[in-house]
């Protein structure tokens, strides 16, 4: 039996997952990635990892992959769906498959890190929102809450740590990229009359936090907000992006009803095309909230979490990467 720790990741081919793979490759780990046969593997090609194309549906196949695992990172999930059932299936039912399969190897497992979302905590304009709060306003947030409640049922059998990341940005991302692209066209879109403060996290800082959560003995059975201590408004983020893009943009304030109408229209067009869009009425509902700020003191206390880069530094790197890869 190898002395090299065995790591298993779900969602490894995605934006966050591929960055976590890069972080884990810096250590001496035996890395196994759960993907679907249809997954786009462009960020995983040529890397010293083992791919398993069984996905998360086949429980027996999952048991084989998880056999002897020491650490599991469950990142896979559903971020867009036409209905709540789709979110529940992707974020709750498939999480249950992972946990049920892990039970067969519970003796070797040191930690299972599950990525939830700040969407579970709900909106806030102050940094006094703690992990004990659960107030989702969208189907996505509700499904992530259900995922957390599911995990808690396994606490007495498995060491599970839950991360609630805030808005994530960085190279390879496609969602925050839309905001940057708007700024590149000379417009900083702002929702509502009042500036909305948000917590955010650079992807490199997030994957480091996930790694530190995994190797910490304090994290099993706990939930952590993961975000930079730096709280900025969308207007301030837009100004940083504009500076890096050498733009003098128009700050365009869009009324809440316009955002809601746009979300409904996007959702309708998604149904026509047969593909759930990332922006719909549910995402619009999150967008019109007064702010998304959370407290991260618990993560700092338990595993010395600290975001290494400011938003100014991180966005400069992100935009430079988009330009280098001819995306901007």
Task: Characterize the structure shown.
With 328 residues, this protein is an alpha/beta fold. It is built from eleven helices and 13 strands. The protein has a seven-stranded parallel β-sheet, with helices on both faces. It has a two-stranded parallel sheet with strand order 7-10. The protein is globular, with a radius of gyration of 19 Å.
Q: Which labels suit this protein?
A:
single chain; alpha/beta; 11 helices
Task: Briefly characterize the structure.
With 328 residues, this protein is an alpha/beta fold. Helix content is 41%, strand content 16%. The N and C termini lie far apart (48 Å).
List strands and helices in order, with pairings:
Blueprint (H helix, E strand, L loop, with lengths): L5 E5 L4 H10 L5 E5 L15 E3 L6 H8 L4 E4 L9 H20 L7 E5 L23 H15 L6 E6 L1 E3 L5 H10 L2 E5 L5 E2 L1 E3 H13 L7 E4 L5 E2 H12 L4 E5 L1 H18 L7 H7 L9 H7 L7 H14 L4
Parallel strand pairs: 1-2, 1-4, 2-3, 4-5, 5-6, 6-11, 7-10, 8-13
Antiparallel strand pairs: 9-12
Helix pairs in contact: 1-6, 2-3, 3-4, 5-7, 7-11, 8-9
Q: State the secondary-structure class.
A: alpha/beta
Order of helices and strands: EHEEHEHEHEEHEEEHEEHEHHHH
Number of alpha- plus pi-helical segments: 11
What's the end-to-end separation, in Å? 48 Å
Could you tell me the number of beta strands? 13
Q: Percentage of helical residues?
A: 40-55%
Sheet of most strands: 7 strands, parallel
| Oligomeric status | single chain
* Share of residues in strands: 15-25%
Apparent shape: globular
Radius of gyration over C-alpha positions, nearest whole angstrom: 19 Å
- The overall average pLDDT, rounded, is 96
Identify the strand order in the major beta sheet.
3-2-1-4-5-6-11
Low-confidence stretches: none
């Amino acid at each position: 039996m190898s002395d090299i720790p065995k790591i298993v990741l779900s969602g490894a081919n995605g934006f966050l997952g591929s960055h976590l793979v890069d972080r884990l490759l810096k250590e001496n780990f035996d890395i196994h990635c759960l993907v679907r046969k249809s997954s786009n593997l462009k960020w995983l090609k040529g890397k010293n990892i083992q791919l398993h194309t069984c996905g998360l549906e086949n429980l027996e196949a999952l048991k084989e992959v998880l056999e002897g695992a020491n650490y599991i990172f469950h990142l896979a999930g559903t971020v867009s769906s036409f209905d709540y059932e789709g979110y529940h299936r992707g974020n709750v039912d498939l999480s249950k498959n992972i946990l049920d399969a892990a039970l067969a190897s519970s003796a070797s497992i040191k930690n299972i890190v599950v990525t939830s979302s700040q969407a579970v905590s709900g909106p806030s304009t102050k940094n006094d929102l703690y992990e004990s709060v659960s107030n989702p306003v969208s189907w996505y947030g509700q499904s992530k809450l259900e995922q957390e409640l599911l995990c808690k049922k396994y606490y007495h059998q498995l060491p599970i740590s839950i991360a609630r990341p805030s808005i994530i940005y960085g190279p390879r991302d496609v969602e925050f990229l839309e905001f940057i692209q708007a700024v590149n066209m000379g417009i900083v879109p702002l929702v509502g009359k009042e500036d909305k403060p948000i917590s955010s996290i650079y992807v490199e800082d997030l994957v480091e936090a996930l790694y530190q959560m995994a190797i910490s003995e304090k994290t099993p059975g706990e939930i952590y907000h993961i975000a930079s201590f730096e709280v900025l408004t969308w207007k301030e983020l837009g100004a940083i992006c504009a500076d890096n893009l050498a733009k003098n943009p128009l700050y365009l304030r869009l009324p809440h009803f316009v955002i809601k109408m746009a979300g409904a229209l996007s959702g309708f067009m998604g149904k026509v095309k047969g593909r759930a869009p990332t922006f719909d009425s549910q995402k619009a509902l999150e967008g019109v909230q007064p702010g998304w700020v959370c407290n991260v003191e618990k993560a700092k206390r338990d595993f010395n979490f600290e975001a290494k880069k400011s938003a100014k530094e991180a966005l400069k790197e992100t935009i430079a990467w988009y330009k280098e890869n001819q995306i901007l």
